[in-house]
Predict the structure.
Amino acid sequence: MTVNELIAIAKNEIGVKEYPPGSNQVKYNNWMYGRNASEPWCASFVAWCFKGSGLAPKTASCLNMLEWFERRGQIVKEPKPGDIVFFKYPTNNRRTNHVGIVVAANGKIINTIEGNTSSGNTGSQDNGGMVAQRNRYQNIVAYARPKYDGLASSVVTKEGRDTLRVGSKGNDVLYLHKQLKKLKYGVDVNSNYFDSTTKICVINFQATHNLEPDGIVGKKTWAEIDKIV
């Protein structure tokens, strides 16, 4: 999934409302719980937009979503389109209780698409019952940056990257394959799965860069992989 694909999905949902009003019954909750559910749904909306990509967790909790990205070192200071933005409104004591998707950033003002908000400043901002596009500059807790296709090398710090081995999958593996392909290793550049062929290529790469040839991509191997231009 790319940033543009994610934003297109979110934009297509603008105007969706829960029905009956005030019920929290909406298709994103049906997807999350597998049934009609009357639960707050801003996080369910964000997770639904990312469904099937593995770039965000399937959770209805803003806090769980924030902590998922924190554990992976994907919190950023300056927002960009495609980032997930976490808010804190004074409706409960949780560290974050609302979440949305950044569409554009202009100085201190961000343009977002959010589920379970209101279309304007009147009405509840974190339980408004609809998907709406908003301008925000207050109540922001944090930004998280998913590992979109084509962004893995710049999005994730070396310390934040997962250790890869046979069986690993995801955008870090896709990035690894693209880097190894530049050195003419025989990997599938479009694959995000770390298989036995990938392991052999990693071992060969490690051996030529004075690294322990164990076929596991850890911090030292990542440092060498990142040098490939």
Observations:
- The first helix runs from residue 3 to 11.
- The two ends are 23 Å apart (CA to CA).
- The mean pLDDT is 90.
- The domain at 152-225 is CATH 1.10.101.10 (Muramoyl-pentapeptide Carboxypeptidase; domain 1).
